[in-house]
Specification:
The protein is an alpha+beta fold and 248 residues long. The protein contains three helices and twelve strands.
Length: 248
């Protein structure tokens, strides 16, 4: 019974004056807590603030072109001129022989063409010179060019040089038989074909107009269809020309 009376009295006190005491204690507690909270916020703000100046940095606009400042020019370094290099000349000794100049004149290799000509044999022309038109070949029976004169002459008739010159060749041709070639100078050569095998001259001989070269033969198998004759050709600078241009 006593315990129940104690708790009832305590409850009455709490519902009476005790209610105001508890309310005061709550308000005081809230006030003290708010004060300490305000002090904490203020102190934290002061600590984070920079000391002495504003710490913000302004970044310039990269799109604005900057003026180009020319770099100061440096004076060019002068290269010292190199002294000329002189090549020492060999000393000339008093007994050095002077060079001897060759004053011997060079031989004249140009040979003048002979101006006097004669027929190599006396006889009629059996076949004329023809390189631009075709003529009948009595041996082969066809029409072809003919690069010389076929002059009728009996077998064994002497053949003479048509002009002065030097015997260049003596040989046997497979078609035109035994042949003698005489160089008359100036690019002109005379060819004597269809000769006998034995000739009167050899290569290197100097001949005059009328010098006997050989005899008329029958060695040219390409012209066996023609009566005995001498086949005469004249070549000027490598090209066949008409022997009549010189003989007449």
């Amino acid at each position: 019974m006593k315990n129940q009376s104690f708790w009832r009295k305590l409850g009455d006190f709490a519902m009476g004056k005790g209610f105001y005491i508890v309310l005061f204690l709550c308000v005081a507690t809230i006030g003290i807590s708010g004060y300490y909270l305000l002090q904490t916020v203020v102190n934290g703000t002061r600590t984070a603030a920079p000391v002495g100046a504003d710490a913000s940095v302004t970044i310039p606009d990269q799109s604005v072109p900057r003026p180009t400042v020319p770099a100061p020019s440096r004076p060019a370094e002068e290269t010292p001129a190199k002294p000329p290099v002189s090549t020492p000349r060999p000393a000339v000794q008093p007994d050095d022989p002077e060079p001897v100049r060759d004053t011997t004149p060079e031989p004249d290799t140009t040979q003048t063409m002979s101006e006097v000509f004669t027929w190599p044999v006396q006889g009629s022309v059996l076949r004329d010179f023809s390189v631009e038109t075709l003529s009948l070949d009595p041996t082969l029976g066809d029409w072809r060019t003919h690069g010389g004169l076929d002059i009728a002459a009996d077998l064994g008739i002497k053949v003479i040089a048509i002009s002065a010159g030097t015997v260049e060749q003596v040989y046997t041709d497979g078609l035109m038989g035994t042949t003698v070639v005489v160089d008359h100078g100036g690019g002109l050569c005379s060819w004597y074909c269809n000769l006998e095998e034995d000739t009167a001259v050899q290569a290197g001989d100097t001949v005059e107009i009328g010098t006997v070269l050989g005899s008329v033969g029958s060695s040219a198998i390409a012209e066996v269809g023609v009566e005995p004759h001498l086949h005469l050709e004249t070549i000027l600078n490598g090209q066949p020309v008409d022997p009549r241009d010189y003989l007449e």
